Amino acid sequence: MEAIKKQAIKLREQVAKQQQAVLKHLLHLGNDNVAVDEAELECHQQLQNLYNSTRAAKGNIVRGVEGRVAVRLKQMQIARKLSEDCCKYGAENQSDNSCVARAALQFGTSRDLMENEREALLGILGDQAAEVLRRQSNIRESDISAESAMKLRNAEARLTELKATVLALGREASAAMLSVETQQQQMTYQRLFAM
In the structure, what pLDDT confidence band is assigned to residue 140 with cuts at 50, 70 and 90? Predict the structure, then answer.
């Protein structure tokens, strides 16, 4: 995903440089009234090709985000099943006053809460990707208004922010799970030594 993102940024920078070069060249031509030659036509064609490939890359990025959301949803289903099983095991074995049962119940409950948050974030991320695609399909190349372009940029910025948020939450969730696991292991060792 990061590679696609870097490639899109690189393409965007190349397009900006090409546009500046073409504008500078066209301004120079306007002053000298020189006829358009083969090199200028080739440069214009290359710029058009670069623009088209940039738009295609944007579509690829959105499709990649959609694919990532689909994979994450499947992972969420598996994690939910795990948390349900842990909660069920913990609830069924509470009468034994077992450390493992309490740990399983706590793990299942915390995992379920994390999955609820992840589901909300993935929903927002999926909506943002769908919004970008919807706007992309509605806007024609020649009819791009400044307002529409600004809204599209804002949607893309929100999508980028949401991706960063999902990654940060994933890291925090992993750290929290490791912390809980370490604490549970320490408690188990202490109780075993106490026996």
Answer: low
Please give the Cα distance from 25 to 30 (Å, whole number): 9
Tokens 């070069």, residue located: 21
Which single residue is written with the structure tokens 């969730």?
A: 173
C-alpha closest to that of 112 among 66, 177, 67, 163? 177
Give 36-71 pLDDT, tens digit per residue.
Answer: 467 777 887 888 888 888 878 877 887 887 888 888
Q: Which residue has the tokens 């589901």?
A: 119
Sign of CA pseudo-dihedral 48, 50, 54, 59: positive
| Total structural domains within the chain | 1
Whether residue 180 contacts residue 106, with contact meaning beta carbons closer than 8 Å, is answered with yes
CA-closest candidate to residue 159, choices 77, 75, 63: 63
- For the segment 113-132, the average pLDDT, to the nearest whole number, is 83
Contact, 25 vs 40, CB < 8 A?
yes
Q: Encode pLDDT of 4-35 as tens digits.
A: 767 767 767 776 677 666 666 555 544 444 44
Domain interval for residue 146: 2-194
- Region class of 34: left (phi > 0), else alpha (psi between -120 and 50), else beta: beta
